[in-house]
């Protein structure tokens, strides 16, 4: 199963909800073909329809629209039950391996176009496959689930339906007769390219509003930044050491480190800790081994200096070969005097960055510059959490290329300068920008519709003047070529209509409509293999045959509804 067909896959809300075995009639919303639907399952599905309506329209539904949503919910539940019943009947399911194989070899179009998998403006298949297999950097669990529970089972069901229920003995004989024959055809070719189309601004605007989701943009920021560290002075470091000693004494009393931090009244230090878990003792850095040497469980080492303050190691427990310990950071909080010089430097870097860009300015000052990946506003990751609120306020009003005022992070003990490398903040492409595209789409649709109307009028009365191209084909078969392409569909549909004494078919090839008429038919007595019969039959099914089949099953379904809109 390497290629997905182009049929329209039905999207169902809550397709595989759990069907309740309710016995209390007050908890039953209704039933489909004898399967009871609980109120909980019904309302879960209804809420999904309601939420999508709000997302698409930006408002709550009217009374009439709520009634429509209620009916749509029951239709989708009915489809879900029908599919479940058929999956059980034919023992249909999809394995994880099948899902990965399908998604690896037939990548969904929306994935290929997604900015999340674009690198230098092109789709990065390696990045996509990594996400597909590991959910990193993008989580594709929902996509895999959709294919396992929805897409692949429907593909399998289609194949089974064709083989077991649609290809009757009568149809097989007809298909065999078509394949074995040869015929003379007349082709009437109607092209819409010469039709004049006029569109009003109101029509264009209405189409834009109706199809607004097609023009939704992914909102994101791509940032660049550099940092200027603030070095605490001796007084600030001394205050931090006093805090470290206080924490050490509290740990001797048996107080948990989380409680110590929560109740710490000294605001001159920033305290945090890391639970390192069990580590192999012999693989620990020598300074940590030395700090933990001889400590009893629960106690910690003396404060050791690091660039932002003091660090301590608390032994939690040790075994023969492993050590469980915490790393405790007591960071000195610089006061005004310590902040001034780094802030001045940050302002100077910003001033230069306004002229030559932040990356080059950082290079001039000999400091590192970091470029972030594209991130949505909701999932923006910044170097320090304590500046995120301020940064977001700046980003909301900033434009691409803006340099943001230096922000101080106590968490990093540094001034940070941010550059908005790229910003996509518009929710939708504006009408003015997509108007030529909409005009092209509407014109194509209008020409297609008018061309179809011309063909249908001509079929009713062929004496009506019509602009078409005429071609005569003699002694052709289903394997013949016409204009360098297989004649398969045209031949099959023309001969089928001829055998059924029906009107000639209308076959759409791109924008062109072809009406083939059989003028001479010569059946042959040739045995055709069952596999070839199935292949030709499947190739000539209407594109939406599965949806049509589903609609027929919905009409036949026995549905009992206890809920009200």
From TrEMBL:
<keyword id="KW-0732">Signal</keyword>
<feature type="signal peptide">
    <location>
        <begin position="1"/>
        <end position="22"/>
    </location>
</feature>
<dbReference type="InterPro" id="IPR027304">
    <property type="entry name" value="Trigger_fact/SurA_dom_sf"/>
</dbReference>
<dbReference type="GO" id="GO:0005886">
    <property type="term" value="C:plasma membrane"/>
</dbReference>
<protein>
    <recommendedName>
        <fullName>PpiC domain-containing protein</fullName>
    </recommendedName>
</protein>
<keyword id="KW-0472">Membrane</keyword>
<dbReference type="Pfam" id="PF13623">
    <property type="entry name" value="SurA_N_2"/>
</dbReference>
<keyword id="KW-0143">Chaperone</keyword>
<keyword id="KW-1003">Cell membrane</keyword>
<dbReference type="InterPro" id="IPR052029">
    <property type="entry name" value="PpiD_chaperone"/>
</dbReference>
């Amino acid at each position: 199963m390497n290629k997905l067909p182009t049929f329209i896959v039905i999207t169902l809300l809550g397709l595989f909800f759990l069907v309740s075995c309710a016995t209390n009639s007050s908890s039953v919303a209704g039933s489909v073909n004898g399967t009871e639907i609980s109120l909980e399952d019904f309302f879960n599905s209804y809420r999904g329809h309601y939420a999508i309506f709000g997302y698409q329209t930006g408002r709550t539904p009217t009374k009439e629209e709520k009634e429509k949503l209620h009916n749509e919910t029951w239709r989708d539940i009915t489809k879900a039950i029908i599919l479940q019943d058929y999956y059980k009947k034919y023992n249909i399911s999809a394995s994880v391996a099948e899902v990965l194989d399908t998604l690896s070899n037939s990548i969904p179009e929306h994935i290929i176009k997604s900015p999340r998998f674009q690198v230098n403006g092109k789709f990065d298949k390696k990045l996509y496959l990594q996400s597909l297999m590991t959910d990193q950097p993008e989580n594709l669990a929902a996509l895999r689930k959709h294919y396992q529970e929805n897409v692949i089972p429907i593909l399998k069901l289609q194949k089974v339906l064709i083989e077991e229920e649609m290809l009757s003995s009568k149809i097989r004989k007809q298909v065999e007769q078509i394949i074995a024959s040869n015929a003379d055809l007349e082709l009437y070719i109607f092209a819409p390219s010469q039709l004049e189309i006029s569109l009003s601004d109101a029509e264009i605007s209405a189409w834009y509003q109706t199809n607004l989701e097609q023009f939704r943009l992914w909102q994101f920021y791509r940032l660049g930044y550099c940092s200027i560290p603030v070095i605490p002075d001796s007084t600030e470091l001394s205050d931090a050491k006093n805090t470290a000693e206080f924490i050490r004494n509290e740990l001797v009393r048996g107080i948990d480190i989380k409680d110590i931090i929560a109740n710490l009244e000294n605001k001159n230090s920033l305290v945090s800790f890391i639970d390192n878990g069990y580590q192999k003792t012999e693989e620990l850095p020598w300074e940590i081994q030395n700090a933990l040497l001889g400590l009893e469980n629960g106690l910690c080492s003396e404060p050791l200096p690091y660039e932002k303050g003091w660090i301590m190691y608390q032994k939690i427990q040790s075994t023969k070969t492993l050590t469980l310990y915490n790393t405790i950071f007591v960071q000195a909080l610089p006061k005004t005097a310590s902040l001034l010089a780094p802030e001045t430097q940050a302002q100077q870097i910003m001033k230069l960055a306004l002229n030559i860009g932040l990356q080059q300015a950082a290079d001039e000052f000999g400091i590192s510059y970091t470029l972030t990946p594209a991130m949505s506003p909701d999932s923006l990751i910044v170097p320090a959490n304590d500046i995120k609120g301020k940064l977001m306020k700046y980003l909301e009003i900033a434009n691409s290329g803006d340099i943001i005022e230096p922000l101080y992070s106590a968490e990093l003990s540094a001034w940070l300068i941010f550059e908005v490398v790229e910003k996509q903040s518009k929710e939708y492409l504006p009408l003015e920008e997509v108007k030529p595209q909409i005009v092209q789409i509407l014109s194509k649709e209008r020409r297609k519709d008018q061309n179809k109307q011309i063909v249908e009028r001509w079929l009713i009365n062929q004496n009506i003047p019509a602009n078409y191209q005429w071609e005569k084909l003699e002694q052709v078969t289903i394997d013949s070529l016409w204009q360098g392409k297989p004649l398969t569909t045209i031949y099959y549909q023309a001969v089928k209509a001829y055998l059924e004494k029906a009107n000639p078919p209308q076959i759409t090839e791109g924008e062109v409509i072809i009406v083939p008429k059989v003028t001479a038919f010569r059946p042959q007595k040739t045995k055709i293999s069952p596999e070839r019969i199935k292949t030709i039959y499947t190739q000539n099914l209407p594109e939406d045959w599965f949806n049509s089949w589903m609609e027929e099953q919905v009409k036949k379904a026995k549905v009992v509804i206890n809920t009200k809109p």
